[in-house]
Structures are given as structure tokens and as C-alpha cells.
Amino acid sequence: MRKIKLVYVPLLCAMLWAGRVSAQADIEAGRPVLDSLEALLGTNLTKSQRLDVLEQISFLHYNVDSTEMYARQELALARELRRGLQIANANRYLGWCCYHRDEYEQACEYYRESISGYDSLGMSSDLAAGYYGLASSLGVLGDDLLADDYYSRALSIYITLGDTAAVAEIYRKKGLTSSDFHLHETADDYFNRALGLDSEIGDSAAIGEDIYMLGVNEFSKYKDFTDLEALDSARSRMLRALDIENRFGSIERRTAIVQDLMEVFMEIAKRNTDDKRAEALATSRMYYDKLSEMLRAQSVSDEGYYLDLWNANYLMINGRYREALAALKEIEKIPNLLWEKEMRMCDLMIVCNRELGDYKNALKYTNLRSLLDKETYKRDFAVKSTQTSANLEFERKMHQRELAAQHQKYMMQVVLVSLLLMSVIMAVVLRSYLRKRRLSRVLAAQKDQVMLKNNELNLRNEEILAQRDEIEKQRNSIRRTNQAITASITYAKHIQDAAVTSREVMNSVFGDCLVYWKPMNIVSGDFYWATQRGPYKILVVADCTGHGVPGAFMSMFGISTLNSLIGFEAQITNAAQILDLMREKIISGLHQSAYGDEALESIDMSLCIINTEKTRIHYAGANRPIAIVRKGELTAYKPDRMPVGQHVLCNRPFTNNIIDYEPGDVIYMYTDGMTDQFGCEGAGCEIGKFSTRRLHSLLTDIADRPFAMQTAIIDNRMTKWRTQPDGTLAEQIDDQLIVGVKV
Known about the structure:
single chain
């Protein structure tokens, strides 16, 4: 990123001690030249000579700490001597150091300084390197639009300079972004451009990578549109890429190609019969064995799920459904199974149970698959929407509006009214057209009635105009209604904020504390509640059924119920008893019946009673756990697997967990809006849930920091997790709430 050219130091030979080797020999020897240059700094050099030596050392060093030390000396001396080129070079070297230390914002500042210097000096090649470094840093920070602008500037310069390798690298970056958003034609164009350039310069490793990327894009196209020609093209290109990678590439890319070929030949087997199916299955099995061997050699275990799912699929294709069912049940036992693998497991379970005649379990996994479809609907829709246009920003905004419309009942009414009005208009127009034809046929015989018919037609036209005006009025009325509803919900947000425990009360009970509360739709179905009764400090974090307005109504009911229980039944010090009583009040207050067909609203919540005299915590949980961090180690306490409300287990009392705590322990309580949020981290990552594992790791890392800093870190981490390759934020799927207190 920073190594562009070597600046010759004309005085190096003269300054080396007598009897030493020449400067050119040192440069060819690698490390000896750095030793010689560093030795020169201890001799009697002029400032100009010292600056030239510092420039050489900064350029040659690939150690971040050493590069930064010499680059800072170079920058200070260059500013003193007013040497513009050395100032720009030093800023670029410091930008490289910050980038490799993950200090991306500071890296952007240094790269901008270097760009300004190179631009004023007319240094095209160095200016392109500065643009490339700035674009890379902006991409990591999530500003993909600005990053793409600087990549394009660098691309323009490299094309002018004829730097084919650099041009091909930028084309690959643009192709990967297009493929991630399922813009298959655009991705093909970029990858083919890169392939053409890499072929010109004979870069075998880059050619293999280009062909593999083309194959991956074809396989993605097959999955989206069941395009059998794309499947055959993916097979051909991946086989060709594997042949090249076996000779010139890396073990990591060979592993990826083998895994994809295993899946490609399995899909070919499903699409064929008899000998062709058997041949494809045998080939897929061969790549399965090869992938297993490669993963063992690299000590990689994370991809084992793919091998297990492939094995179950292989057994089913060969009619061995009972063996396949046993294998799938073993996969089902794996904790924290990623949603993509869980959906594939459900698909196989449905077919397997149906073939074995177990329609009850087939229905069970069909329902589970439907639930998973609902969880991933937003993600799938976002991916498909990007395929209809190259303008990703426009598609994102339209997609967000469409999703918002699906969650608002009144918008469905708007659609129905609009369709009805369009039907009326079409009926009127058709009626007028038929009337005109009838009039033309009888015109010769009924000349005396022409004026009358014309008058009738004019009246009909006036009716159409009147209906058009009425449609416009209704459209304006609907717009005003939408604005009024949004304003009402916004005002309801103020009411909900007043109902939950205020920051002043939280601070008076627990001192400084963490409250990270981020509703999905203005008002929230998540809430927190706290109070103190003598030596007992009570803290509640809850997640009500639904979100938005329905969730907010349920949260207000939950807060009211807690105020009633804790306010008038102050002798209750057992957390489980409070949840039991609250469940009774919710079932009674909402008139819930175990035999009704209506939706059963409920609350998932964790409740802690902290006895400050005995340093004990009474904890009870309804589907919500708590986590306690003590001296850098996190311990999670599991809840009862039932909500506060009507449930098949509602006759079972909640469990009261008694936990001894130590001063300085930090208690965290959170809702599932955090762990279920979809997103990813890093280039080429697989989109998935944030997960409980990641959240616990984050809380463990930040527990010893001030709560204000913890809030900022959590918000920054969630923003990065939701940031998509185009720089936009993925849709927030649920309300998010974390509360942390120190005891």
C-alpha cells in the first residue's frame, strides 16, 4: 500500500566508512542496507543529508513501530527544511502505520495530508497510492461511497500510467462488491476485465483468483434463479481455477475451491438421474474426502458443519433415509447453530421424515423452517432487491420503505384503496370506449341523436374528472393521516420514556450504571425498571411480545404490573415469587386462555433482587439470562424456558437462583434484540446473527471501563456489525436493550 518507489540517496557511498561495502551492495543485500543507513544517522550529516537517509529508512522498513519512529523524524525535519515531497512521503508512511494498527480515522488524516502534497507537486503515481490508501481506510470505517470515489480516482491514474496490476486489483474489488449484492452481470464485467489484464502481464496466481471469482458468481446466479447453464459454467470455471491454484496459489484458496466444488457436484447430482447422478455423486464424494483432509491439515474445525450436512444429503439421495435422519439429529444437537445451516438442516429433516412416513415430525420441521424464514425475511428481501438496479443507494431506500409498509397495517389499506380506485377508473374508461363504438355504428341511422349522445359523453368526462379530483383528495387525506399517526407515536415515545425508570432513579439506586436502549420503531417493546426497598435493590430488564406500538402497550402494562406488585407487596423478596405473581396478573389482566386461538402476549424478562446486607442476588428469569463479570471472567446464569404469561408450562413455578456476589462484580441484563441482530465483520464475511458468544466476549472486554465508555463501545460495535459493504446499515430487526450495574 505504501511501497511505490525507492528514492536514491546520492551521498550514501561517500558517508560509509572506509573499507565497508558499497551502498548498492547494501541495497541488494536487504537488511544490511538498513543497518548501514541507521549507522549513517550517527555520523556528522547536514540536515539535508539526514533527511535523505530518514526517507530511505522509512521506505525500506516494514516494521510498523520502526517505520513510525523514522517517519515522524522525517516529517519534522522535512517541515523545517520545507521539502514538500518528503512531507507528503512521511505522511503516507504514517498513514500506513495507523492502518496496520487499526487506527483508521488517524490513517485517513495522514493520507489526506499526503494527497494534498502530491497533488500540489504533480506526483501522479504517488497521488494514486495515496488515494488507494485513503480508500482502503474509508472502506474499513464503513464509508463505502467515499471509498469508491477514491478507488475510482486511483483507477483513473493507474490507467493513465499503464499500471496493469494495480488496475486489475481495483477491478477485483469492485467485482467482489457487486457479487456480494447479487449484481451478477456487473460482477462478471469487473472480473473479466481483471482477467484480461492479468492475462496480459502473465500473473498466474491472479488469473486463478479471477477465474475462481467468476465461478463463485455463476454459482450464486444458479442459486438465485435455478439457472442450469450457470451451474455448468460454475463447475467448469472452478475446475480450471483449482488446476491453476494447485500450481501457483495458496492453500487457503484451494480449500475454498474444493468446498465449493463439493457443493456444485451435489447440485449436479440432484438435477440428473441414473449414471449421470452416480458420477456426480462420486465426484462430490471425492471432494468431500479431499476437503476433510485439508481441514485436518490446517487444524480448522469451523467448517465441519458443511461436511455433516453434505453427508446427510448424500445418504438421502441414495435412499438411506434412516441413516440420514440419525446424522441430522446429531447436527441438531450442536449449540448455537448458524441460521443458514439450521435452515438447510430443516429442509433435509422435512424431506427425510416425509419419506419415512413420520408426518408429525415433518410438520414440526416445516413450522420451524417457517419461523426461520420469518427471521431471515428482511435479509433475503434486501439481497433480492439489490438485483434489480445498479443504483444500490436508491434500492436501499426503496427497500426500507417497502419493509416499513409491510409492518404498518394502515399501509395495506392504502394499497387496497388505490387498487379499488384504479379499477373504478379503468371501468369508467372502458365503458366510455364501448359507448363510443356503439354510437359510431348507429351514427348513420340516428343523426338526430348525435347531439344527445355527445352531451352524455361530456357528462361522463366530467364524472371522470370529478372522480380524479376525489382520488387526489383521498390521497392527500391518507398522507395527512400517516403524518398524524407518526406524530402520535413520537409523542407516545415521550410518555414511555416517562414511564420507565429515570436515569436519576437508576443512579440513586445503583450509582453510575449502563443503559443502552435502542427502540426499533420509535417506541419500544423492551423496558427496564428499578427500585429500592430498604437493603433490597430490585432491577428488571424485559422484552415484551412484538415491537413498535403493540410492544409499547405491552411494556406499559408490564411496568404498571411491576409498580403494583413491588409497591403494595413490599414483603416479597423472592425473585421467582414476583414472576409467578406477575404471570397471574398478566393472564388475568389480558383474559388469556390456554384453549383460545388468539395470540398469547407475554413478557420475557430477567429480575434480580440484590440484598446488600448479605451480598446475595436472588435471580429469576423468563427466557432471559443474566451475566456477571468478576475479575475479567464472565459467568452466565440460564433462565427458565417459559415467558411471563400464558404458556404450556405456566403451571410450573419459576426458579429462584441465589447467587453470592463480591464487591466490584458487574451485572449485565439484556434482551435478544442484541444477539439476534444480523450483520457481519470483515471483507467477504458471511452474514449471520451477532450471537450470545460475541456479546459475552464484548462485555468481558469492557466490564472494567467506565459505563459511559461502555455505552459508546457497544454502540460503535453494533454499528460496525450492521454496516454492509455499500456503507449502509442493515435493518434493525428488534428493539435492543442492555443494562449493567456494579455491586
